[in-house]
Every structure is written in structure tokens, then in C-alpha cells.
Design a protein that fits this description.
The protein is α+β, with helices and mostly antiparallel strands. Among the domains are: 97 residues, no CATH class; 82 residues, Calcium-transporting ATPase, cytoplasmic transduction domain A, CATH 2.70.150; 110 residues, 3-Layer(aba) Sandwich (Calcium-transporting ATPase, cytoplasmic domain N), CATH 3.40.1110. The protein contains 24 helices and 22 strands. The chain has a seven-stranded mixed sheet with strand order 10-22-21-20-11-18-19, sandwiched between helices. The two termini are 27 Å apart.
């Protein structure tokens, strides 16, 4: 399903671009020419469709070539233009049409990728809050445009809504998911006095919030502004075909002109140009890219920008956001500190039996840790704001609360608590006596340490970094667990963008993230990869999306990029080498134009066959355990 969906989206983008439609029309014209010629209608009107489509491609191509030459940029398009014109002079309309097809097809691939920037901002606009429920002094609600909200306004945030502005809770108790904005992996409890951020997703309880900032100054608006600036400043990438085409075009022209001058026969020039038609560049590289896109889709990876397949294999620095990438993005019970006379299984079954009825963010972590244990009889359960959970479980009074609450209500118990460490915690009292402290962390993904360790040997990645909006203790804990040497905490989206830009200036980078706060950094990295498609903004900002949030899939993406680059280079360099031999033969008069055209078609077929190997990988590519 993922492979068909990824390829379908890519083909839709291809066909929706101007050059994509030109390529399709050119293909139809070539098919008509072949059909009419085989039927014996070798007349001017049989040539007309191919002539028209060749002109449609050649005219804007000529304009771009002139602009490029004025800017001192020379690529494969120069030789493509010369080849179309030369084929037209020779009345080789099939050759002209095929070259026009390859030029327009290659440009359509680029057009599909270049639409990414506008898609990112469109996704941000779709998710951006537009309405706020403003509460008047008499308690009535009015829906107003978020742009007219003033500092001090009382706003009601309904269950599961996006918070419209930055503010402070003044009524209600609940929770909000701020992970997309802050990098904190947890759903954060909200009580009167708690700060809230624009763009955070409210939980199941309605909250009344006092606006502390106007919409244009909110956290979400800042991220939009940073992303807009990052997109505007992103440098253009030169195609692999262009880089090779600079050398190839120069050699072809020198040989063609040299053959003409030495022999005095202009047919030598035509023969060299025909055999020099850069189809291994114009055909082979795009086919290799399409094959890599299809292969990636089979593994549940959507390629948003095809050029990233070339760039990812050159990366020497890999930068990770913490939440949801190297970790699972949710709290898990990591340790239990026991009180006197309590055992770990007993504490866990008592606590989990009570927590199974709770909606607190840590309740699921407790019940998940107790999976497989029989749940005990619960006679009553209550969650009191500012007090914690209280229940009667299996004949015992169980209270689950926090360290700060106990410091006020039970200073005698607070005095015997273990030292505070990183992560989250809850304190459990059984029959009014201290029973234990449960510690929670956002645990590393399985295989994260092995993945980091294999990057240098298998992918030549020499530097790994962790950037997170989370607290220092959490970041250091994860860095130590997975083997990262550079780990920075409390990093804002603006600072994250700045760091990624600095690192990218030193070496090609891959940035891996999953939240809105990661989107600006993704656009600044050499390659941006999103984990999961839970957030359409991040998915649009990324060059590739790993749908099932797996490090194995990320490793496969890196291998696919390297495979594509290797086979594309084989196709391009191998095709150029064969064409160069043909050019030498044509230059000395041993290969006439017609034979050169046939030889070039053979080279094209070989280039296509070799490029199709990209999509034929059958074995799993991941190589870390």
C-alpha cells in the first residue's frame, strides 16, 4: 500500500507540472510518428506532431541555455539543445522527438521536487489556528478571528482543539500535547497558572486561557516565520547530470568542431553531435531516480525531493532531534525505588490497578509496565486536583501523587524520598506509608545504539549530534544510552536552525525529526528526513518521510540513496564512455550520421537497462544489528 501510494503521489506531481504535460504530449507525438511511418505515411504531416513538440521543448530550452551561459553555467541541456537542432537539420525527427522527451521528462522531475517549498507553507497554514472562542465578562462565548485576540482576553480551548495563542490557564485542569512545538515527549498536565503555547493540542478537558501574546507574536507564528525564511534562503542544488554534462559537452563540441575543421566535411560535425546526444544523462539518471523512489516506497519511505537520493549518500554529519526519532516519544517506566517492606511486583500491581481508570499522561506507562499482571479489585478511585490519585485497592489505601504535593501535605514522607533525578516521577503511598517512587523516561528505540555505532563504518558518517528542546538531564541520559558524543538540550527552533546551518556549512548533513519545531532545521540541512506522518507540516518540509518510524527504514533509505548514486554514475559514465568512443569514430569518418544514430540508440537501451537495476533489490538492505 505504501509503495503504490508513494509512487502515485510522485507520478501525480510529475504529470501536474508544465514539463510533465509536455513530456506526455511528446510521447504521444512520437508514438503517432512511429505508427504513421510504419503504415507508410512518410509525409510532412506525419512529421508535424514531433516537429511541434520538439519546438515546444527547444524554444524554452534555448532561452534557459542562453541565460545559463550568461551566468557561466553550462550543463547537459546545452548538448541537448544542440542535439535537437542538429537532428532537425538532418530531418531526423524521431531522434529530435526522443531528445525532447528526455529533456522535458528530466525537467518535470525537478518541477515536482521544487513545489515542496510552497507545500510546506500550505501545510502550516492548514494547521494554523484561525478561530478563538473569546469569553465575555458575562460568560458568553463568541468565535473571533485569532488575529483580533488581544493580550488579556479570556479564551476557551475546547477538547482536542489547537490552542490559538500563547497564554496562561486561568480555569480548568487537563493536559496539552506540546511535543510538536517544544520537543518535550510528554503530554503536559495543565492547571491554573500553567503556561500554554499556540499550536499545542488540548486534551479531553476544556480550559480557559488568558492570552499573553497576540497571534502574530505567538510561538507558532515564530516557527512559521523561521521556516519561511529558511525556505527562502535554501540554496539551489545542481543536478548530477549537469555536473557531468559540463565536461561531456565541452569534449563533444571540441571533437565535433575538430572533425569538421580537419576534414572540411560538415557531416562530421553532425555525426559527432548525433552520437554525442546525452541520453545516458537525460534518460539514465531520471530512470535511476524513479527506480529508487519506487524501491523506497516498497519499504514504506516516501521520497518528497528526488535529489535527496543523491545527496544523502554524501552526508558526513547526522543530526537527530530527540523525541520520536531515537526514542519512542512516550514515557515508559524505567525504574522503581522501593520503600521499606515493599516489593516491586506488589507495588506495580497495586498502582496499575488504580491507574487503569486514570487519564493522567503517566497512567498508560504504569499499566503497560504491568501488562500480564492480574488487576486487583478497586473499590473506589478518585483524582483530586492538586492532590493526586487516591483509590481503595485490594483492601489497601493507595495514593499516587507528586513530590511537590507531598512536601506540603506530608513533609515526613517527603523527607525520606530518594534524590530527584531526570525524567518524570510519581510517588506511591500504601496505607498512608511511603511505598516507592516510580521513574519514567522517554526510552531509546530498540537498536538505536547499534544504529549510531554502524554509521561511520557503513555510511562514512563521522559526526553525530543530538538537538532537543528537552531538559539537559534527559538529553544527557539518551546520549549516553545510544553513544552520541555531541548532545545539546533546551534548543529552540531558531537555535536548532542556526546549528544545522553551521554544521551544513562544514559538511553535508542529514537532519532527522518529527515535530513542527523541526521543520525549519529540515529545510536547512542537506537532507531532511521526517519520522512518521503524524504531522503534515513536518512531512512536507522533509525531503523524505519514513512512515513507520523505524531506524531500520532510515538505514534502508541511506542504502537506497547510495545504490541509486552508484548505478546512476555507472549509467552516466558508462554511457558517456561509449559515446566518446563513437564520437572519436565519427570524428575520423568511420561512423556516418545514420550509423551514429543507431549506435546512440543502442547506448540508450543499455543505459536504461542498467538504470532499471536500482529498483530490483530483493534483499533487506539494513546492515546493523
Amino acid at each position: 500500500m505504501a509503495s503504490h501510494g508513494g509512487l502515485r503521489l510522485y507520478l501525480e506531481a510529475f504529470a501536474g507540472s508544465t514539463y510533465g504535460r509536455i513530456a506526455i504530449a511528446t510521447l504521444v507525438a512520437i508514438s503517432a510518428w512511429i505508427g504513421l511511418t510504419l503504415a507508410g505515411y512518410d509525409t510532412w504531416w506525419a512529421d508535424a506532431p514531433v516537429v511541434v513538440m520538439s519546438a515546444v521543448v527547444a524554444i524554452p530550452l534555448a532561452r534557459d541555455v542562453v541565460v545559463g551561459l550568461m551566468s557561466r553555467r553550462v550543463g547537459a541541456d546545452v548538448l541537448g539543445l544542440i542535439a535537437i537542432v542538429t537532428a532537425a537539420i538532418m530531418h531526423e525527427w524521431l531522434v529530435a522527438g526522443v531528445i525532447a522527451l528526455m529533456v522535458s521528462g528530466g525537467r518535470a522531475l525537478e518541477d515536482a521536487a521544487s513545489a515542496r517549498a510552497s507545500a510546506v507553507l500550505a501545510a502550516l497554514a492548514r494547521r494554523s489556528p484561525t478561530l478563538a472562542h473569546r469569553r465575555a465578562d458575562d460568560g458568553t462565548l463568541a468565535d473571533v478571528d485569532v488575529g483580533v485576540v488581544q493580550i488579556g482576553d479570556s479564551l476557551v480551548v475546547l477538547p482536542h482543539e489547537i490552542c490559538p495563542v500563547d497564554g496562561t490557564v486561568i480555569e480548568g485542569r487537563g493536559s496539552m500535547d506540546e511535543s510538536y512545538l517544544t520537543g518535550e515527549p510528554y503530554v503536559i498536565p495543565k492547571t491554573p497558572g500553567s503556561p500554554v503555547l499556540s499550536g499545542a493540542i488540548n486534551g479531553v478537558e476544556a480550559l480557559v486561557v488568558r492570552a499573553e501574546r497576540m497571534s502574530k507574536d505567538s510561538r507558532y507564528a515564530q516557527i512559521v516565520a523561521v521556516l519561511t525564511k529558511a525556505e527562502a534562503e535554501q540554496p539551489p542544488m545542481r543536478r548530477l547530470a549537469d555536473r557531468l554534462g559540463v565536461i561531456y559537452t565541452g569534449i563533444a563540441l571540441v571533437l565535433a568542431i575538430g572533425g569538421w575543421i580537419v576534414s572540411g566535411d560538415p557531416n562530421r560535425f553532425l555525426a559527432v553531435i548525433v552520437i554525442a546526444t546525452p541520453c545516458p544523462l537525460l534518460i539514465g539518471v531520471p530512470i535511476a531516480i524513479i527506480g529508487a523512489i519506487a524501491l523506497a516506497a516498497r519499504y514504506g519511505i516516501i521520497i518528497k525531493d528526488p535529489s535527496m537520493l543523491e545527496r544523502i549518500s554524501t552526508a558526513r554529519t547526522m543530526i537527530f532531534d530527540k523525541t520520536g526519532t531515537l526514542t519512542y516519544g512516550r514515557p515508559a517506566l524505567s525504574a522503581i525505588v522501593l520503600g521499606d517492606g515493599m516489593t516491586e511486583p506488589r507495588l506495580l500491581e497495586l498502582t496499575a490497578s488504580a491507574e487503569q481508570y486514570s487519564r493522567h499522561p503517566l497512567a498508560f506507562a504504569v499499566t503497560q509496565a504491568a501488562e500480564g499482571m492480574p488487576m486487583l479489585k478497586v473499590e473506589r478511585m478518585a483524582e483530586l486536583p492538586g492532590h493526586g490519585l487516591e483509590a481503595r485497592v485490594d483492601g489497601h489505601d493507595v495514593r499516587v501523587t507528586g513530590r511537590k504535593i507531598l512536601a506540603d501535605s506530608r513533609p515526613d514522607v517527603a523527607a525520606v524520598l530518594p534524590p530527584e533525578v531526570g525524567g518524570l516521577e510519581c510517588v506511591v503511598l500504601v496505607d498512608d506509608a511511603y511505598a516507592g517512587t516510580m521513574l519514567f523516561r522517554d526510552e531509546p528505540r530498540a537498536g538505536a545504539r547499534e544504529f549510531i555505532a554502524h554509521l561511520e563504518d557503513r555510511h562514512l558518517v563521522t559526526r553525530t549530534m543530538l538537538l532537543s528542546g528537552d531538559r539537559q538531564s534527559e538529553v544527557e541520559y539518551l546520549a549516553d544510552r545510544v553513544g552520541l558524543t555531541v548532545a545539546l538540550s533546551s534548543v529552540s527552533p531558531e537555535r536548532k536552525l542556526e546549528i544545522v546551518r553551521q554544521e551544513t556549512a562544514l559538511a553535508p548533513t542529514v537532519f532527522l525529526g518529527d515535530g513542527i519545531n523541526d521543520a525549519p532545521a529540515m529545510t536547512a540541512a542537506t537532507v531532511g528526513v521526517a519520522f512518521g506522518k503524524n504531522n503534515d507540516v513536518t512531512a512536507e518540509a522533509a525531503d523524505a518521510v519514513v512512515l513507520d518510524s523505524s531506524l531500520e527504514r532510515l538505514d534502508e533509505l541511506m542504502h537506497i540513496g547510495r545504490r541509486m548514486r552508484r548505478i546512476a554514475l555507472q549509467t552516466a559514465i558508462g554511457g558517456i564512455t561509449l559515446s566518446a568512443i563513437g564520437m572519436l569514430l565519427a570524428m575520423v569518418g568511420l561512423l556516418p550520421p545514420v550509423a551514429g544514430a543507431i549506435a546512440q540508440e543502442v547506448i540508450d537501451v543499455l543505459a536504461i537497462l542498467n538504470s532499471t537495476r536500482v529498483a530490483m533489490a530483493r534483499r533487506p538492505m539494513t546492515d546493523f544489528r
